[in-house]
Fold:
Amino acid sequence: MPINADAAYFVAKDRYERAKMPAEKIAALEELISAAPTHKGAEKMRGQLKKKLAELKAAQIVAAKKRGGKASLYAIRKTGPAQVVLVGYPSAGKSSVLAALTNARPEVSPTPYTTKVPQIGALKFSEMDFQMVELPAIVPGTYDSGKAGELFGCARNAECIVLVVDARKAPEQFSGLMDELRKAGLAGKTIFVVANKCDLISSLHMESCPFPVLKASASKARGLEGLAEMVWASLGKIRVYTRKGENTDRRPMVMEPDSTVRDAVRMIHKDFLETFRFARVWRRNSPHSGSRVGLDFSLRDGDVIAVFG
Structure:
């Protein structure tokens, strides 16, 4: 049975085949698995990909041990268009936020410091998967302890930082977390705030916060609906969908805002540039939707493209 994969799968497959270093291959293979079809006809293929991923990760650990070191739990390879880290005090509700927004099932407990290693999930938006990482608790003094270099390094590599604060202590926890981020040189990152446990208070007292604040109750899965869209908007990128015949892929290609048809063709497969004749681009609210265009045509968010060679 054919797998009937969309363009995003073949883009990820090409990236995996071109990867040379083990870490690059692992990151590309994780993205390939995420983009792979989920229907019954692709089950065997997905199983093979997951087996290969396990082999690569095992080989990486063995190689690290041979070098006299160890594989860091904080060396998390990015997958998808963005990596988002959850940062907060003990018992602020980071695990509850992760569980409410993703497919992850972290241990959720009122006991402080339950999360001892990073937990990873997939935050879905518009058929895309943002990688969401819950970090162990950060409190005042964490940076100065000298033991959290890898923890802050993980936050440094992310596109967005989400501060999870207990709404009952929101101003105090927000201030403490921002002090730690400033010490680590991370205060200039894209930051959002989730004020968790808002169902337990009458007023939040976060009016002076310079960042977007979501009033939420993660345990009840309330108030978190807009976070994925906020993450997407912060990236400043565009979504371009591919069409073959009458079928439009649901998973978009994520591109820079100044991208052209040439960039899209190259992402689908670089060899297509050699046989390219023209493309058709469908655009919402455009009288010229579906018209023939050339390689230099500029693309916009939501465009649908069909390539003819």
Q: What stands out?
A: The CA atoms of residues 104 and 121 lie 5 Å apart. The chain has three domains: 7-66, 83-235, 238-308. The longest strand covers residues 119-125. The chain has nine helices and twelve strands.
